[in-house]
Design brief:
By secondary structure, the protein is of the alpha+beta class. It is about 65% helix and about 5% strand.
Length: about 850
């Protein structure tokens, strides 16, 4: 080590020791002023916390400026599906329509704050209230068959224009009108007396559906007839949480008592936001409450002192509120998942109290006075606590530079929470212990050893065997960790038993065309441009479908013919019609069946134009569709925003049989500016972002830890004692994740940083107490430091690890990973580290 470096390290050590001496003098001489000043800071932090806005949208945890996730969110916004509510009615086929009518009526009448709660409620292919505009569109479509008719159906269309077919169609129309079927039938007969729509509408209806529905049903009904889908558009966006909560309450009231034999479940952004927020808050509060009781129980059963035990919640609340208050001044909002850091503060905040109180109690048991025992606890053990807190906090704070909000926000909150909890312990615990010893004096009683004396003796007698066993265990789990894969499905991180999650799964299982979907966006300045370019992309996708690499392809070009398709249809129609005059034949057939031809003037004019018809611009067809009851087709596939037209193509696939990288290369060759998104592409993008941010944070945090450990120990042996147990602990953690079937995901990846920071504390505290100690004092020092480390590990598991039992997948994965990592690191620190120190025989004589 150079002279300059040695001087720098000595100066830093002197500054830390001087700082701790100042804290001890302040808390010893001016306890009242210390408490009063701390309470003032707490009040200011509470005022800041009250202004914090919490969010629950999981997508806001990740960068959304570009890439697959940006396009995914754009498509949700463009198509309106981001804010739609989906109702699933499940029961007997014959009971579903009546139940749907009742539910739709209640939803249309539902009001929030004196205004309608929904803009639109749909569950039929064509709403009965829109029969007139539907008939008008039918008239337009059959008069221009070149636009919407599949060229392969041209012969069938021409066959319906023969005199014999006309007679049959008009007799059918007469029978339907005589049956009194209603205004809808009259409008349709007037628009299309020859039932030419039967060759056009199935194609249009199939193209307008995003779900795998029964093509014969007038309702959004599953093919097995067991599920009916209702789609409702809320009047206000999901970000208005007050509206969302009232809406969900209204939905629950509306669906109550619809039909005892029909179940109604709901999914959608509003329901997810309200339920996810409630589930997360409930899980977090339950975990915090239960873990707090466990932590307090462990502390009290070990030390048998009530006042220090009751101080722990004060320290935790102080550290948490200061962290939230400070973060509230920096961040515009805080995600509810990041708020789960409170559970970690319960464990870490207790750690510092354990180490300080254990040293104080041990010194009092050894016969030292109150002042000297407190000074040793704050200045000597406090030095280790200070370094431990710094090695935990700074790796988290280093994550603040990450572009991934999930990492940067949680890193900031945990880092601040750790530092504030440490200072809360330094400022609150000494005055309280001084007060308790003066007001409620009692003889010092021996503290439980938890078998640590036996561990010390055993590892001292068999250091080689213990060390080899530790190396073998680490190697085995390290080898297993190579099989750890990444979980990219964001839906698996959501509450697993919430209604919104289960309903969405039911939709995907019973109604989706395929489990996964890629969306390709072709963007330009005009409808004609994007339709022409989209045709090339559609042909590319169709080749993949023909090779069974895609399950289905859907886009607007499948229902609107381009100029080539229109020319083919017209050529075949003209060839079949020949020199006949279908308009004349139709006029005669109308008269023969008793119809007034003047009522069918538009139909007659359209049939008369057919032999000389030419191509129709795609933009005209789009506008007619947009103004018809089939507008959902245009809204799903074609969106114009800010002078740009976005054409969306949906490619449905099942899994790995679709070679996405190959398709994307082919897509760039066909249309270099086209964009694509899919669950797999989003997962890859987020994985890359998390990986990059994590590596940067891990590197910066690791460098900071090494520097802090070097400052603390001034030796490689001390650094190794702190780093090796946590390194082995991480290897065991990742190996255990493989053995237990867990996968690495966007959330539990940050546990690696957590373990790196707080896991190094365990070896640090043990080495700090044992380094240079006389042989005779070794057992007592190890027992004292080991007891604090053991309790710290247990309280951390009880705090952060309690998240393992939540219903929220993201939190549960964090909890289990923490349990594995903390438990393994504590084991190596308490067993392998003393064995290694005994084996080297450098520090214990």
């Amino acid at each position: 080590m150079t002279t300059t470096a040695a001087r720098l390290i000595a100066a830093i050590q002197a500054a830390i020791r001087g700082h701790l001496e100042w804290i001890f003098r302040l808390t010893w001489r001016h306890p009242g002023a210390t408490i009063a000043g701390s309470l003032l800071v707490l009040i200011l932090s509470l005022a800041s916390v009250l202004t914090v806005r919490f969010e629950s949208d999981i997508f806001k945890l990740f960068p959304t400026d570009n890439g697959a996730l940006r396009l995914f969110l754009d498509t949700l916004d463009w198509t309106g599906s981001a804010g739609e509510a989906y109702f699933i009615l499940e029961g007997e086929r014959e009971r579903l329509p009546a139940a749907a009518d009742r539910l739709a009526g209640r939803l249309r009448e539902l009001q929030v704050d004196g205004a309608p709660a929904f803009r639109k409620v749909s569950y039929r292919v064509v709403d009965p209230a829109e029969t007139a505009p539907f008939a008008a569109f039918v008239a337009y479509a059959v008069d221009r068959p070149q636009l919407f008719l599949d060229p392969g159906q041209a012969d069938a269309f021409a066959a319906r224009l023969t005199p014999q077919a006309m007679d049959r169609a008009l007799r059918r129309a007469t029978a339907e009108l005589a049956s009194g079927a209603g205004m809808g039938v009259r409008d349709l007969v007037a628009a299309d007396p020859l039932y030419l729509r039967e060759l056009i509408l199935p194609r249009l209806q199939e193209g307008s559906r995003s779900l795998d529905l029964d093509p014969e049903s007038p309702y959004f009904l599953s093919r097995d007839g067991r599920l009916l889908v209702m789609i409702a558009e809320p009047a206000r966006p999901v970000k208005e949480m007050g509206f969302a909560r009232k809406l969900v309450a209204g939905i629950n009231a509306a669906r109550a008592g619809i039909d005892p034999r029909v179940s109604v479940s709901c999914a959608g952004a509003h329901l997810s936001a309200v339920i996810d927020e409630a589930v997360m808050k409930h899980n977090i509060i339950a975990c915090i409450t239960s873990s707090l009781f466990v932590v307090l129980g462990l502390f009290y059963l070990t030390y048998r002192r009530l006042l220090p035990t009751l101080l722990i919640p004060v320290i935790i609340v102080f550290g948490t509120l200061l962290a939230l208050g400070t973060a509230g001044l920096i961040l515009p909002s805080i995600h509810i998942i990041s708020f789960a850091f409170t559970a970690l503060i319960i464990g870490l905040g207790t750690d510092y109290s354990i180490h300080l109180y254990d040293r104080f109690a041990s010194e009092r048991l050894g016969g030292r006075g109150i002042e000297e025992a407190l000074r040793l606890a704050v200045v000597d053990t406090g030095h280790g606590v200070f370094t431990a807190a710094a090695t935990t906090a700074f790796p988290f704070l280093a994550l603040g530079i990450a572009e991934v909000r999930a990492l940067s926000e949680l890193g900031l909150l945990v880092g601040l929470g750790v530092l504030f909890s440490m200072y809360a312990t330094f400022f609150f615990l000494p005055p309280l212990l001084h007060f308790a010893e003066k007001r409620f004096p009692r003889p010092a009683a021996p503290l439980p050893s938890f078998g640590l004396s036996w561990i010390w003796r055993s590892t001292g007698r068999h250091p080689r065997a213990v060390s080899l066993a530790a190396v073998a265990l680490t190697a085995a789990f390290f080898a297993a960790s190579f099989f750890l894969d990444f979980e990219g499905e964001l839906k698996n991180l959501q509450p697993r038993h919430s209604e919104a999650f289960l309903t969405q799964e039911r939709i995907e299982r019973h109604l989706s065309l395929a489990p996964k979907q890629m969306v390709v966006a072709v963007e330009g300045k005009s409808v004609e441009e994007v339709m022409t370019r989209g045709r090339r992309v559609g042909e590319l996708a169709e080749r993949y479908r023909q090779r069974h690499e895609l399950a289905a392809v859907s886009w607007l070009g499948q229902v609107i013919n381009d100029r080539n398709g229109q020319a083919e249809s017209l050529e075949r129609l003209k060839e079949r019609l020949g020199d006949t005059s279908p308009a004349t034949a139709l006029r005669g057939a109308l008269v023969q069946e008793g119809f007034d031809p003047t009522l069918f003037s538009d139909t007659l004019a359209g049939v008369a134009r057919l032999p000389g018809a030419g191509p129709v611009p795609a933009a005209e067809a789009v506008e007619r569709l947009r103004s018809s009851p089939l507008r959902g087709m245009v809204e799903r596939y074609l969106i114009a925003r800010n002078g740009t037209v976005h054409l969306l193509l949906y490619l449905h696939y099942r899994g790995s049989e679709f070679p996405q990288e190959t398709f994307l290369r082919d897509l760039r060759a066909v249309d270099p500016t086209a964009r694509a998104t899919s669950p797999d592409l989003i997962s890859r993008q987020l994985g890359d972002s998390v990986r990059t941010s994590f590596i940067e944070g891990f590197a910066v945090g690791g460098a900071i830890i090494l520097f802090l450990l070097l400052v603390h120990f001034e030796s490689l042996a001390g650094i190794a004692a702190a780093i090796l147990p946590v390194t082995a602990g991480v290897a065991v953690m990742t190996g255990l994740m493989v053995v237990t079937g867990m996968r690495l995901n966007f959330m539990n990846a940050m546990v690696l940083v957590t373990i790196l920071g707080m896991g190094s504390d365990y070896g640090l505290h043990i080495y700090h107490r044992l380094a240079g100690a006389p042989v005779a004092e070794g057992p007592a020092r190890f027992t004292q430091a080991g007891r604090a480390v053991l309790l710290s590990a247990l309280t951390t598991i009880a705090g952060f690890g309690s998240l393992a039992f939540t219903d929220y997948g993201a939190m549960a994965s964090i909890g289990w990973a923490t349990n594995y990592g903390v438990g393994a690191t504590a084991l190596f620190s308490l067993v392998a580290l003393p064995a290694a120190m005994a084996l080297t025989r450098r520090h214990i004589r």
